[in-house]
Amino acid sequence: MRQRLARDLAPRRLAVIGGLILAGRALTAGYSRWRPSCLTWGARPDEVSRDLPGDELLAEPDILSSRAIFIAAPPKAIWPWLAQMGPGRGGLYTYDWIENLFGLDMHSTNVVLPDFQKIEIGDSHKLGKKGPTLRVAICDVGRALVLRSDDGNWVWAFVLEPGATGTRLISRNRIATPDASIALRLFNR
Fold first, then answer.
1. 80, 86, 89, 95: CA torsion to nearest 10
2. Each residue of 56-70: pLDDT tens digit?
3. Confidence of residue 183 (pLDDT cuts 50, 70, 90)
4. 18 and 65 share a domain?
5. 49: domain CATH number?
6. 150 belongs to a structural domain
7. Position 167 in a domain
8. How many angstroms separate the CA atoms of 23 and 32, rounded?
9. pLDDT at site 26
């Protein structure tokens, strides 16, 4: 009975394994097509190509992403949300379950927290028990908040650009990967 059951399940297992391999290959093949849009989600070409505050802190990153969104509010209404970002503060405003999957114990708020509105150069945020410490490197209230990891391998900038009907929020990540830079440069082409 067991042998017959094993024999009957064998083709199904092979089909599942084959399907997973095929899906993996398809994702790998499609990676080069969807990666650029992931790295520039929402950003206009000029926002991707121009210099932003903090770029000088990591001149030649291995990974560079510039993402943007329009918010129908002035910078002064958006700044409090940036000022309170971080663990034990306002969170990162993404999906908490993703952050907590990485052990960050992060919980995003949906209100402005008055206790976390004062932010200064040098303030630090530790991301999880083993993650990097990000320090405020640039704090231009109402315009730019730039965080830099203590090891200098990550710079994360948030830039607010006012317009006639609202504000563009540009988020730029510049990441150096000293241990994997050769492989990453191949994938960045």
1. 100
2. 999 999 999 999 999
3. very low
4. no
5. 3.30.530.20
6. yes
7. yes
8. 15
9. 63
Find the domain containing 20 and state its range: 1-39
Residues 161 and 183 in one domain: yes
Residue 4 φ then ψ, to 5°: -65, -40
Query: How many CA atoms within 13 Å lie on the side-chain side of 84?
Result: 19
Same domain, 72 and 25: no
* pLDDT at residue 178 tops 70: yes
Decide: 172 and 61 in contact? Cβ < 8 Å: no
User: CA dist 173 to 10, 55, 113, Å?
Assistant: 46, 9, 25
34 lies in the same domain as 127: no
Domain presence at residue 108? no
Q: Which residue type does 70 have? A: F
